[in-house]
Amino acid sequence: MTAVQAALSGALIGGLYALMAAGLSVTWGALRVINLAHFGLILVGAYLTYQLTTAWGIDPVLTLLVSAPVLFVAGAALQWAYDRLNIVEFNSLLVSFGLLMITIELTTQVWTADFRHIDAGENPYGTSAVHLGSIALPISRLVALGFAVLLIGGGHLVLERTFAGRGLRAFAQDRTVAASFGIDHRRLGMVVGGLAGVSAAVAGMVFALGNTIAPAHAYEWFGTVFAVVILGGIGNLLGSLFAGLGVGAFSAVVAVLWDPSYEPFVLFLAIILALVLRPKGLFTRRAAA
Amino acid sequence: MSVRKGLSILAGVALVLAVLAHFNTSLGIAPYLLVLATSVLFWVIQATSWNILSGYAGYFSFGQAAYVGVGAYSVAVLTGRHDVGYPVSILVGGLLGALLAAVTGAVAFRLGALRGEIFALLTLAVPFILAAFVRINRDIDGGLGTTLPLPDFPGWVGDFQHLIFLLMLLVATLAVGTALWVQGSRLGRGLNAIHDNEDAAEALGVPTFRYKMLAIVLSGALGGLGGALLAVRNGAVQPELVFTLTVPLFVIVMSVLGGRRHWAGPVVGAAFVTVLQDELAAQELDQWGNIILGAVLVLFVVAAPDGLFGRLRVRPWLTVGVFVPVLVGLLLSGQYTELDAILYAMVAAIVAALVVDRLRPAPGAVSSPAGHLEPSAAPTEGARPTEPPATRPAGAAPLADLPQPAPPPVPPVAQSPPGELVSVAGVTRDFGGVRALDDVSLSVSSGEIVGLVGPNGSGKTTLVNLLSGAMPPTRGTIAIGGRTTTGLAPHRVAHTGVARTYQIPKPFASMTVRDNVAMAVMFGRTGASLASAREAAVRHLATVRLEHLADALPDALNLHQRQLLEMARAIAAEPVVLLLDEALAGLNPAEIDDAVAVIRRIHAAGISIIIVEHLLRVLNQLATRIVVLDRGVLIADGEPATVLRDPAVVRAYLGRQRA
Fold first, then answer.
1. Out of B118, B290, B301, closest to residue A94 by CB
2. Contacts of residue B252 in chain A, CB cutoff 8 Å?
3. Domain map of chain B by residue range?
4. Cβ contacts (< 8 Å) between A105 and chain B: which residues?
5. How far is CA B18 from CA B91, B169, B188, B272, B320, in A?
6. Do A230 and B113 count as a contact with CB atoms less than 8 A apart?
7. Which of A101, B111, B586, B624 could covalently link to B294 via disulfide, CB atoms 3.0 to 4.6 Å apart?
C-alpha cells in the first residue's frame, strides 16, 4: 500500500515536473534554443505568486493574472533576443546559463537566500488533502496535475490542429523551407517563447503552493526536469506530460522501497538506459527515415 | 611557436614565479598577493582542464565541479579520516578525477543522437548526484564537512602559504603544459576537427571516440588534482563549497573570455576573472560578482566568441607595452594598492588591444595560422556564390578540349590486388519499420567508375553511408579490398582505403582550405606530421585546381569550390575507392564540366570511384558501369548504354504509365 500511495503522490508531483519541462521542451524542439534561463523564469514566477499573495492576500491561483503576462513578455523578449543575435543550441546553453546566473542572483538580492513560503492563511491549497480510502492526495499536487493536463493538452491540440502549430512544426523541421512558404519565424518564435514564459508562471505558482521557495531551488530542478524533457522526447508536449508522471512515480517508489538517497542514481540510470535504447525519447512515434 | 619552445618558455615562467614567491618578503611582495596568485593558479588549472575537452573539441561540460569535488573528497576522506599522507591522497584525487571522467565519457560519447547537448546535460547532473551521495554517506561526509590537518613540509619551503603556492604552481604548469602539448599534437588537430565537424572528421580517419576519451580523461585528472589542492589550501571540505555551480560558471566564463581554441585563453581568462572577483570582494561588492560574470559570459558569447586571447595575440607587444607601464605608473604613484593597479593595468591593456584591433583589422589573423590571405580571390568569390570559379570563364569549352597544362599527378596509390575491390553481399538496412536497402549485392573492381542512380529515396545515400561505415547494415556484409568492414568504426573503414564526400559539403570551418586537406593526410592511411601534411595538401589542391585558395577559409568558398575541397580532402586520404555523394548537385553547366574533369583526373591516378548522381547525361559519358536502385532494391547493373535503355529502369525513373 505504501508503494501505491508513493506512486500516486509521486505521479502528482510529476505534474509539476511536466509543467516545468513543457516550456523547455518546446523551445528546444521547435526553436533549437536550450533555454536554461527557463528555470530562472519559473523561480521568478514562484516569487511573484508568493509576493502577491502575501501583499494582497488574494488566492494564489489568481496571481497568474499578473505573473503570466509578465513572464509572457519576458519569455517573448528572451526569444526575440536569441533570434536577433542568432543564438541556437550550444551558444544558447552558454548564454542562457549566464542569464540564469543573473536571474538567480537578482532574486537573491530581492528576496534573500532564505526559504520563503506562503502563509497558511493565504494558501487554501497548502495543507488540505483529498482522501481516497487510505490514500491521501494533497490538494496542491492535484492542482499541479490539473494545470499540467490543461496546459499541455491545450498546447498539444494547438500544435496538432492549428495552422500556427503546423507552421511551427514545419519550422522545426526546416527553417529555410518554412520561411519560403511564408512562415514568419520571428513572430512565431516570440509567441512560443512567450507561451513558454506562461508555462513557467504556472509552474512557479504551482511550486509555490506546496513548497518553500529559495533561489537555490533553480539548480535542484535541473536534473529531474531535463530527464523529463529527454525521456518525453525533445519538443514532444504529450511525451513530457507522461514522462513527468512516470519520473515522479518512479522516483517516489524508489525512495519509499529502498532509500531516498538512491533516488538520483536510479533516476539517472534509467535516463541513460532510455537514451541508449530509445535515443529520441520514450514517447516519440517511429519516424520514417 | 613550436611545442618544445612553448614548453620551455612555460617552464621558465614557472621557475621565475617560484623564485619570486620564495623570496616575496625580501622583494617586498605583499603576502596577500601570494594568496591571490594561489587562487589564480587554482582557476588556471580548472579552466585549462575544462578547455582541453570543451574548448578544443567543443563538447561543453557543466560538470567541472564534479572533478573538483572528487579531488577534494579524496583528500578529505583519505587524509582527513584515515591519516593517509597528503602526497598519496592528492594523487588519488587526480586518479579518481580521471576515472570519473572516463565513466562519464564512456556513457555520454556512446550515445548516438544529440551528442553535444546530451553531454552538456549529463555533465550538469553529475555534480548534483555526487553531492547528494556525499551528503548522505556518513563514511564520506554525511553533511557535516571534514577538516584537514596542517601538512608537514620541509623548512626551506617557507610557510604554508609558500607550500600551497608551489603545489598549485606545479599542477598549473602541468595543466598548461598538457594543454599546450595537446594543441600542437595530432590529438589537438583531431579535437579541432571534431569541434568543426565530427562526422567528417571520423570519415577522414580521425578516431573520434578515442580522442574524446583521451581529452576527457586528461581533463578529469587535472581537475581532480586541482580539487585535491583546493582541499589542502582550505583545510576543510564541505559539499556545498566544492559541488557548486559557481565552479562551471567560473571556468566557462574564464575560457570564453580568454578564448577557447588556444591554451593561453583560459590562462588569460582565469587571471582576469580571479583578480576581478578579488577586487569586488575588496570593495564589498561580491554579491554582484556572479551577476557581472553572467553578464560577461553573455556579452562575450554574443560579441566576441573568439575570446580576448584571440584579439590579444594579434598584438602581443602592444598588450604588454600597455600593461607594464600602466602597472608601474600606478604603483609608483602610490595612490593605488597592488590589486587595484594590476586590475586597472589589465583593463587598460585589454581596451588598448581591442580598440587598436578595431581600428586596423588584421585580416584572418585569428583563425588562419599562415596569416596571409589572398586579398582578392577568396572574399569576392564568396560574395557571388553562384558564379563559376575565376579560373574558368562561364560557358568555357566542354571538358574534351579543356586547356590542361599537364595536370599535376595524383600521388600513386598503394597497389591493391587486381580484381574485386568492393564487395557488397546481401546487404539490408532498416530504419525503424522502413527498409531502405533490401538484399543488395554489388561488386566493384579496381579501375571502375560506377554510377549509382535511382529516384529519390531509393537508398543511394544509405548505401554510401554503409560503404563508408557511417552506419552498420542490418544484415549482410561489406568488404573492401578483401577485408570485411562491417561493424568497423568509420575511421577504421577509412583506413582500409575508403574516402567519401558529402552531398552538402562539411568542411572544417575554423581551418584554412590547406589545413582541411592536411587533416586528411595526417589521419589518412599513411599518417604524417602536420608540416609534411601541409605540403602534400597543396599537391592535392592542385589536382582539383584549388591551390590558389589554399589560405582561404571555407566560408569564403562558393558551392562548386566547396565540392572541390571535399574531393581534395577525400583523395588526400589516399583511398583506393572514392565515394562521391551527389558531388555535382546544384552546379551550373560550366562547373559540372569542371568537376567531371577533376573526377577523370582522380580516376586516371588509379582511384576507383562510386558516384551517386542524378544527371544521367553526365554519367553516360563518365561511368564505366551503372547500378540502379529503386526503393531499396537493385534493379539493374551493367553498361551505361544498356542499363539506361532497360524498361525497368525507365519505369522506375519516369513512372509506370510511360512503360
1. B301
2. 94, 97
3. 3-252, 419-658
4. 287-288, 290-291, 294
5. 22, 8, 29, 20, 21
6. no
7. A101
- The answer to whether the CB atoms of B298 and A287 lie below 8 A apart is no
pLDDT in tens, B620-657: 888 899 999 888 888 888 888 888 888 888 887 766 55
Residue A172 to residue B273: CA distance in whole angstroms = 38
Smallest CA–CA separation between A134 and chain B, in Å? Answer: 31
Identical fold for domains B3-252 and B419-658, yes or no, is: no
Which residues in chain A touch residue B60, judged by CB atoms under 8 angstroms apart? 90, 93-94
Total Cβ atoms within 10 A of residue B102: 16
Considering only CB atoms, which chain B residues are within 8 Å of A276?
A: 110-111
Written as nine digits, the cell of B384 is 557571388
Range of the domain at A166: 2-277
A281 → chain B, closest CA residue: B113
Q: Which residue of B has its CA nearest to A33?
A: B117
Q: Which 3 state secondary structure label does DSSP give B655?
A: coil
- Is residue A117, in this structure, part of any structural domain at all? yes
For B236-241, what is the mean pLDDT? 88
Q: State how far residue A261 is from chain B, nearest Cα, in angstroms.
A: 7
H-helix or E-strand containing A2?
helix A2-31
Q: Do B129 and A97 touch (CB under 8 A)?
A: no
User: CA of B292: how far to CAs of B75, B107, B247, B249, B341, in Å?
Assistant: 33, 35, 15, 11, 20
Domain assignment present for residue A262? The answer is yes
Selected from 3.90.230.10, 3.40.50.170, 3.40.50.300, 3.40.1390.20, the CATH number assigned to the domain covering B419-658 reads: 3.40.50.300
At residue B442, φ and ψ (nearest 5 deg) are -160, 145
| Cα–Cα distance for residue pair A117/A174, rounded to 1 Å | 45
In a domain, A282, yes or no: no
Segment B488-528, tens digit of pLDDT? 888 888 888 899 998 888 889 888 999 999 988 888 877 77
SS3 state of residue B406: coil
Q: Minimal Cα–Cα distance from B127 to chain A, Å?
A: 10
Residue numbers in A near B301 (CB within 8 A): 87, 91, 94-95, 98
Q: Nine-digit cell at B166? A: 608551489
- pLDDT grade for A173, boundaries at 50, 70 and 90: confident
Q: How many inter-chain contacts (A to B, CB under 8 Å) are there?
A: 116
Identify the three-state secondary structure at position A111. Answer: helix
Tell me which chain B residues have a C-beta less than 8 angstroms from the C-beta of A78. Answer: none
Which residues of A fall within a CB distance of 8 Å from B288?
105
Q: How far apart are CA B489 and CA B207, in angstroms?
A: 8
- CATH fold label, B3-252: ABC transporter involved in vitamin B12 uptake, BtuC (1.10.3470)
- Average per-residue pLDDT in chain B? 82
Answer whether B14's CB lies under 8 Å from B169's CB.
yes
Residue with C-alpha cell 555534480?
B127
Contact A102 B295 (CB under 8 A): yes
**Could you write out the DSSP letters of every residue in A55-94?**
HH---GGGGHHHHHHHHHHHHHHHHHHHHHTT--HHHHHH
B381-436, pLDDT tens digit by residue? 333 333 333 343 444 333 334 344 444 444 444 444 457 889 898 899 988 778 88
Domain of A173, CATH number, reads 1.10.3470
Nearest CA to A272 among B5, B111, B132?
B111
Total of domains in chain A = 1
Cell numbers representing residue B627 in the block: 547500378
Q: Is any Cβ of chain B less than 8 angstroms from the Cβ of A3?
A: no
pLDDT at position B89: 94
